[in-house]
Amino acid sequence: MIMVFPFMVFFMFQPFLTEIVHMRGVVLEQTTHKYAKLAAREGYLSPTLINQMKADLQALNFNTTPLVVAGTTGGRVARGTDVNITVQYPVGNMFILMNWFGSDSPSGNYKFSATEMSEYIP
């Protein structure tokens, strides 16, 4: 019975963990597209938008310390120019039984990019 217990735990809880990993990716992807549209209005990805994005993700219980946000941050670009945003966040552990059947290697990062045409008119 003891040998069967780890497999029972795996089959009972692994689908929930997989769904959590998937839903975190969906939230990050939607957030990336939302802030790409907001950055297009301003003509660039401003520090205010980055801080607002981090605050929104913190409200959803994301740890924003490993969050990497990059994109068009150098200054406003004129209308018709692309505004890019890239968001990276670590996936975390994907398996409920870490290190029981070997080592659980890091699963990499979520990486989402979005491009919108700038709407800023100087």
Automatic annotation (TrEMBL):
Where does this protein come from, organism-wise? Paenibacillus abyssi
Q: From which domain of life does this come?
A: Bacteria
- Protein known as: Uncharacterized protein
